[in-house]
Write a structure and sequence with these properties.
Function: Responsible for the release of ribosomes from messenger RNA at the termination of protein biosynthesis. May increase the efficiency of translation by recycling ribosomes from one round of translation to another.
Number of strands: 6
Helix content: 55-70%
GO molecular function, one term: ribosomal large subunit binding
Number of domains: 2
CATH superfamily of the largest domain: Ribosome-recycling factor
Largest sheet: 4 strands, antiparallel
Number of helices: 5
Structural class: alpha+beta
CATH architecture of the largest domain: Orthogonal Bundle
Strand content: 15-25%
Shape: elongated
Order of helices and strands: HHEEEEHEEHH
Pfam families: RRF
Strand order of the largest sheet: 3-4-6-5
Main location: cytoplasm
Radius of gyration: 21 Å
Distance between the termini: 52 Å
Subcellular location: Cytoplasm
CATH class of the largest domain: Mainly Alpha
CATH topology of the largest domain: Topoisomerase I, Chain A, domain 4
């Protein structure tokens, strides 16, 4: 069975599901587990020069010690906007401004904060599941088109099964990744 003839591009569906997993991993990297990490600020976008810009493109991110992240903002006019973006990011960290440097002291996680972070991780995982299901829906729509273009019912069932199995595999990966992240968050 050649994909090209039937207009069902499973490689594209797989690539898009991989993209949803990659986005989930990046979001999970931003969740703090009580230790400082440069990746925790990666998803933060700063309103710089009229465009949403990743924070690591308006300053240098460093981890000088295990419980501190520093961001040296290159343009002093962006310090306030960067601080605002950090406060609104949901990281739960109060930035401290020192000239053009923003310090992010990472507090110990208390039980309540751990539970909150575990819930946030669950939300990120659900967003990834929705993205994967949307890719599945696109695949099923391609199948409907192929059927109306003369694809046989047996072929259609085979493709439906393949797309569903791919979806189930990716949803399981999301669930496994979530479980690992939640255990990491709850670990004292």
């Amino acid at each position: 069975m050649a994909n090209e003839d039937l207009d069902i591009d499973t490689d594209d569906l797989k690539r898009r599901m991989d993209g949803a997993m990659q986005a989930l991993r990046q979001e999970f990297a931003s969740l703090r587990t009580g230790r400082a990490s440069a990746s925790m600020v990666e998803p933060i976008m700063v309103d710089a020069y009229g465009a949403a810009t990743p924070i690591n493109q308006v300053g240098t991110v460093n981890v000088p010690e295990p419980r501190m992240v520093t961001i040296s903002i290159w343009d002093k006019t962006l310090v306030g906007k960067a601080e605002k973006a950090i406060r609104e990011s949901g990281l739960g960290i109060n930035p401290v401004i020192d000239g053009t440097t923003i310090r992010l002291p990472i507090p110990e996680l208390n039980e309540e904060r751990r539970k909150d972070l575990a819930k946030v991780a669950g939300t990120y995982a659900e967003n990834a599941r929705v993205a994967i299901r949307n890719v599945r829906r696109d695949g099923m729509d391609q199948l409907k088109k192929a059927k109306s273009n003369g694809m046989g019912e047996d072929d259609q069932k085979l493709w439906q099964t393949e797309i569903q199995e791919m979806t189930d595999e990716y949803i399981k990966r999301v669930d496994d990744t979530l479980e690992t992240k939640q255990q990491e968050i709850m670990q004292v």
